[in-house]
UniProtKB/TrEMBL annotation:
Transmembrane spans: none
Coiled-coil features, chain-numbered ranges: none
Taxonomic source organism: Picea sitchensis
Pfam families, alphabetized: COB_C, COBRA
GO biological process: one example: cellulose microfibril organization
Family label: Belongs to the COBRA family.
Residues covered by the COBRA C-terminal domain: 235-427
Record-given protein name: COBRA-like protein
Keyword Hydrolase: no
Any one GO cellular component localisation term in the record: plasma membrane
UniProt keyword list: Glycoprotein, Signal
Length: 458
């Protein structure tokens, strides 16, 4: 045993440690980049809401602008009570008037005599008008109570717009100042908006389609969503069953909170509680969630049942249940990731659209209700669920019921990540072996690499 031998050994080992270190690092980076809590959503990497500010004409003391909110997110919509948009004026601008929207406060306009502005606040907060607004107070795409559909579900209604007449502002493209600090609420937190940027002026086609007009100046503001900013706890969970195993794998306990009668009495309500009707018929209407007591305490549960096995096909039943007594989910949607979605053959009573953000990988589906049939997921109670069956054609190479393959990899409800049971709890095939828990295997590999490296250098 010579000295050089040990040296070579050390070199080989340190190279091995270096390589595995890099590999581990990469794995960790990927794991973090794909974590659903960040602003980046792996299933909708380009999703955003863009606010477009088009100056249509100059006025004696400012300008007239049309502000358009476009939702480019595949499956995240804004439901009632709708969006709120705020910003900070750069100088001493005021809003003379608005069409198709209004500010929530007028602010202090005491400096004005005669013609009083609509809003004198430095930080105006704007909301959409309600449906039924008289036609002479409307512009195209306004007055939907702040509701905006998602891009994949209803691109025609994935937009909202209003007109604003700004005074005390610049009156040329060199003196006008962009408002700052845009905030978009939907209606709660979750969106972060970037700075306004000057972009190529928008073009508009006249209604007869024979002439194109152009804005004098256009600014864009891009807002992105983060579930982490929106809420601290998850809002939905997944439970699983199969025809080949009697076990019901429930939502993990306390997924969305814990039932705690001692420290927080009244956090949930039993379905047979005598006080339930009085909690629902409050005046004015209370919008705070009122959740039916369950071990998981989630407002939404998605149940995936592997129902039948045919020679060439297999069938799944999906049920979405609402446990919130104070919420009707209009235009609800779910997004499900499962490797067999490239071969989904039939879907009953749900609309389907494949989502393929990475080109060829066709394993993600967006599902939503059929208009006027089940596009509204009703409040908790007898009617509070919707269901569908999916028929998949088997791919002989990959199909198996082993190791929980028949269950979804990821599920979203209205764009929020749902908590799945741990993989080692999935129903087994009789005599099957459970799939190893990824976390444990990963930890084992990490500790093996670390200890091997330590040993090599000791
Ligand atoms: C916003 O979304 C649109 C449509 O997906 C995309 O083309 C654009 O690049 C996005 N903008 C940003 C800043 O991500
Ligand atoms: C500005 O936003 C509009 C939609 O609101 C979009 O069509 C356009 O591509 C955006 N421009 C830039 C440069 O991002
Ligand atoms: C203002 O408009 C003029 C004439 O249309 C143009 O040449 C100039 O680049 C514009 N300036 C800015 C800051 O947009
Ligand atoms: C905009 O927000 C940033 C950070 O919240 C703050 O520092 C800045 O003063 C705000 N600007 C205006 C004009 O309110
Ligand atoms: C909470 O209280 C309700 C009614 O008083 C009761 O039915 C339920 O079992 C209690 N839950 C817990 C976790 O103690
Ligand atoms: C949900 O919709 C039903 C039927 O339209 C209505 O009776 C109920 O009040 C609604 N519930 C809520 C919480 O808005
Ligand atoms: C994905 O698979 C579905 C179901 O077979 C098919 O209808 C769809 O065209 C596929 N999409 C792409 C982009 O391959
Ligand atoms: C099902 O998958 C197989 C293998 O990937 C493929 O050859 C076949 O075309 C797919 N069938 C459909 C209907 O997409
Ligand atoms: C069903 O699956 C569970 C795991 O969720 C397992 O403990 C049980 O043994 C399985 N039952 C049969 C009959 O294999």
């Amino acid at each position: 045993m010579g000295f050089s031998d040990t040296n070579t050994n050390m070199r080989v080992q340190s190279r091995w440690c270096f390589t595995s270190g890099i590999l581990l690092g990469l794995t960790l980076i990927i794991a973090f980049a794909f974590s659903p809590t960040g602003a980046y959503d792996p299933l909708d990497p380009n999703g955003n809401i863009t606010i477009k500010w088009d100056i249509m004409s100059w006025t004696p003391d400012g300008y007239l602008a049309v502000v358009t909110i476009n939702n480019f997110q595949q499956y995240r919509h804004i439901q009632s009570p709708g969006w709120t948009l705020g910003w900070t004026w750069a100088k001493k601008e005021v809003i003379w008037s608005m069409v198709g929207a209004q500010t929530t406060e007028q602010g202090d306009c005491s400096k004005y005599k005669g013609n009083i502005p609509h809003c004198c606040n430095k930080n105006p907060t704007v909301v959409d008008l309600l449906p039924g607004t008289p036609y002479n107070q409307q512009i195209a795409n306004c007055c939907k109570g702040g509701v905006i559909a998602s891009w994949a579900q209803d691109p025609v209604n994935a937009v909202s717009a209003f007109q604003v007449s700004v005074g005390n502002a610049g009156t040329t493209n060199t003196t006008v100042r962009l408002p700052k600090n845009f905030t978009l609420k939907a209606p709660g937190p979750g969106y972060t908006c970037g700075p306004a940027k000057k972009v190529r002026a928008s073009k508009f086609l006249t209604t007869d389609g024979r002439r194109v007009t152009q804005a004098l100046m256009t600014w864009n503001i891009t807002c992105t969503y983060s579930q982490f900013l929106a809420q601290k706890t998850p809002s939905c969970c997944v439970s699983l069953t199969s025809f080949y195993n009697d076990t019901i794998v429930p939502c993990p306990a306390c997924t969305c909170g814990c039932q705690n009668n001692i420290t927080q009495p009244g956090t949930c309500v039993e379905s047979d509680s005598p006080v339930l009707p009085s909690l629902l018929n409050t005046s004015p209407k209370n919008l705070a969630p009122l959740i039916q007591c369950t071990p998981h305490m989630c407002p939404i549960k998605i149940h995936w049942h592997v129902k039948l096995n045919y020679k060439e096909y297999w069938r799944v039943k999906v049920t979405i249940t609402n446990f919130n007594y104070r919420m009707n989910y209009t235009q609800w949607n779910i997004v499900v990731q499962h490797p067999n979605f490239d071969n989904v053959t039939q879907l009953f009573s749900f609309n389907y659209k494949p989502l393929t953000p990475y080109g060829k990988i066709n394993d993600t589906a967006m599902l939503w209700g059929v208009k006027y049939y089940n596009d509204m997921l009703m409040q908790a109670g007898e009617m509070g669920n919707v269901q569908s069956e999916l028929l998949f054609q088997k791919d002989k190479q990959t199909f198996t019921f082993k190791q929980g393959w028949g269950f979804p990899r990821r599920v979203y409800f209205n764009g929020d990540d749902c908590v799945l049971p741990p993989p080692d709890a999935y129903p087994w095939l009789p005599n099957g072996s459970p799939s190893p828990r990824v976390g444990k295997v990963f930890l084992l590999i990490v500790s093996l690499v670390v200890s091997a490296c330590l040993l090599a250098f000791l």
